[in-house]
Design a protein that fits this description.
643 residues; alpha/beta; 34 strands
Length: 643
């Protein structure tokens, strides 16, 4: 993001008129331009921009003719709009918004709550006041741009790369509920017609961050939080588009939400070459086709459309050339790839059949059945290890087999195949096959010490010790048989880990389990020891867990109070009771129906937080209490029941 601090500092307290450049002829995307082609497919195509760029008339001519949507890079950030508490300044934001309106472009508001571009005064707000300050900021910004912004990035980048919550001032001082509270404040200010998005980077493919984001968003939907969409920034690296982007976007769409690429670019190591431009064009084509293939993908916003104003060289040393237009505003091959994909795509070839593998001491041969789409070739993609890493293309062939000789012993590989047509459209990849060199053909040793833990009424977790093998163990197959004796063992799942959770079991029922190891050449070990398990009876239970947000000599705040469904059955209401120490008085509570009897406090669930799926939690509840000065006691005996 570009900084507006110097400009805005000069603007505070002054009356200044900024001139919005007149709309060039044909400001609405003209037929055949990217914006018009996207609109014809029911999507939008937009670009971010910044205030200083609006004086570049050659730039704005392209911006207003090619694109139907606009997003301010910085002008609506917290530090640009509220540099001091209750000191709001909309000059820069109004310039961008008015430019969009004058040029009949839709406007994406960006962004309301983010750990970056946050003025220092927000960091020093007392924890008890921060929720109110956040709500007021959201209300003021969204209300000011009402009628101009048709969507907002409400919460931006709330997660770390490993999927844990980023410890922002909002996370630390408000807790997990800050995200839901931000969306509720935005909906109240915006009304029902404006789309509200959560936005994240590095979550485009299936990975730890996107899994955590999915769990977070799914929880928001289940709580009835007014969220409409998920924005995937799409800051991509040349030739490294994850193969699971479409699969990932579709699972969020299946929650009933819109998805979109919100800051799309594809960066390369400088300098540019013809080969890199060709790969970049292919990468953009893939990302356009992914969105076209997902019905609820709303569109794409480029993180600037030209290298002239792209921040990639500043953010990533030695990299750049990330956009479809070059430094001189000339179109690159990526422009034509986007245009062609919007014109004809997605015409994806049908995928080939899942591959098989054979190996010798010096090579691995992959075979597959042909795609039903005629005239295609096949990309052979490889990754190292049983999981993780990135698949890269190692070859392309018109046949249905490929021999990989660039392999080494004691290394496990995964292979996928995808079909590619003459226009460069690619199919979804096949399921991966795991293999390695096969020099001796000896089966693995059996897994050891198979143990069952975490036995519930519907699931059990199995753990075991590793098997060994001369060419490498690539996975474990888990088998189950009914009853304490008799009955055949059947395969119920496979894993590369030393643990496996079997769900969907019947309460109060006995099962037997075994595990077998599988090596890179496909040989199987003998079974492990057998473990016998009887599932628990079906019960409905819950727990209540308090978190002390803050405390002082005469009081404290418990927030959040988390209620967890510990049973295998969905609960539809809950009751939490706890005991206040002598002399303590409940002074306030939220998101519960509260009652007191002496020092006993009872919280009942409300309509929006009573239903909890098995293993799920709700945590938007909390309370405040007073206590005698110097008394450091806290409430005890938290119990949860499910009436």
């Amino acid at each position: 993001m570009k900084r507006l601090a110097a400009l805005l500092t000069a603007l505070i307290g002054l009356t200044l008129t900024l001139v919005v450049p007149a709309a060039p002829a044909g400001a609405t995307p003209a037929p055949g331009t990217l914006g018009a082609l996207a609109a014809a497919r029911g999507k939008y195509l937009g670009s971010s921009t910044d205030n200083g760029e609006l004086t570049d008339m050659a730039y704005t001519s392209i911006l207003t003719s090619e694109f139907g949507q606009l997003m301010p890079s910085d002008a609506m950030m917290w530090d640009a709009t509220q540099q001091g508490r209750n000191l709001f300044n909309f000059v820069a934001g109004d310039q961008i918004a008015n430019f969009a309106v004058a040029n009949t472009m839709t406007l994406r508001g960006h962004t309301l709550v983010w750990h970056s571009h946050l003025p220092a005064w927000v960091q020093s707000i007392p924890a008890a006041d921060l929720l109110g300050v956040m709500r007021e900021h959201i209300s003021q910004i969204v209300t000011h741009f009402a009628g101009k912004a048709n969507q907002w990035a409400v919460v931006n980048e709330p997660l770390n790369d490993d999927g844990t919550r980023r410890q922002t001032v909002f996370q630390r001082n408000i807790g997990d509920s800050y995200i839901a509270e931000a969306f509720r404040a935005a909906r109240e200010a915006a009304g029902p017609g404006v789309k509200l998005y959560i936005n994240e980077f590095g979550a485009e493919g299936v990975n730890a961050k996107s899994d955590a984001l999915f769990t977070l968003v799914q929880s928001l939907v289940q709580q009835g939080v007014p969220i409409d969409g998920v924005g995937f920034e799409g800051h991509m690296v040349l030739g490294q588009i994850p193969t699971t982007v479409q699969q990932n976007l579709q699972r969020f769409a299946n929650l009933g939400l819109d998805v979109a690429f919100t800051e799309l670019d594809v960066r390369m190591a400088l300098p540019r070459t013809t080969a890199k431009d060709t790969q970049q064009a292919d990468d953009f084509r893939q990302l356009i086709n992914v969105c076209l293939a997902v019905a609820r993908c709303a569109g794409w916003t480029l993180a600037e459309f030209t290298d002239k104003y792209s921040l990639i060289p500043i953010t990533f040393s030695g990299q750049g050339a990330a956009t479809p237009w070059d430094q001189n505003l000339a179109k690159k091959p990526a422009y034509n790839a986007i245009r062609d994909a919007l014109s004809i795509g997605p015409i994806q070839p049908n995928p080939p059949g899942n591959p098989g593998a054979t190996s010798t001491c010096t090579s691995i041969t992959i075979t597959w059945t042909a795609s039903t789409t005629s005239g295609v070739t096949y990309d052979v993609m490889r990754a190292t290890g049983t999981s993780g890493g990135t698949f890269t293309v190692i070859g392309n062939t018109a046949g249905t087999s490929f021999t990989d000789t660039n392999v080494v012993t004691n290394t496990v590989y995964r292979y996928q195949i995808r079909a590619r047509d003459a226009a460069g459209n690619v199919s979804v990849p096949t399921n991966p096959i795991i293999t390695a060199l096969n020099c001796e053909g000896e089966p693995p040793t059996p897994p050891t010490n198979l143990t069952a833990t975490n036995i519930t009424s519907s699931s059990v977790t199995l753990t075991w010790g590793p098997a060994t093998d001369n060419v490498g163990v690539v996975g474990y197959d888990v088998y189950r048989a009914p009853g304490a004796s008799g009955g055949a063992f059947t395969l119920i799942g496979s894993t590369t880990q030393l643990t496996f959770t079997n769900g969907g079991l019947t309460p109060n029922t006995t099962y037997r389990f075994q595990v077998r190891a599988r090596d890179a050449s496909g040989l199987m070990s003998q079974p492990s020891n057998t473990v016998t398990v009887t599932t628990a009876p079906n019960t409905v239970a819950c727990t209540a867990t308090p978190t002390v947000q803050t405390q002082w000599s005469t009081g404290y705040v418990i927030n959040p109070l988390t209620v967890t469904n510990t049973s295998s059955t969905t609960i539809t209401s809950w009751t939490v009771t706890f005991t206040l120490p002598p002399g303590h008085v409940l002074t306030g509570s939220w998101n519960v129906q509260a009652s007191t009897s002496g020092q006993i406090v009872t919280f009942h669930s409300l309509s929006f937080n009573g239903t909890i799926p098995p293993g799920g939690s709700v945590n938007g509840m909390g309370f405040q209490a007073s206590r005698p000065a110097g008394n450091t006691a806290l409430p005890t005996s938290y119990t949860c029941t499910t009436p």
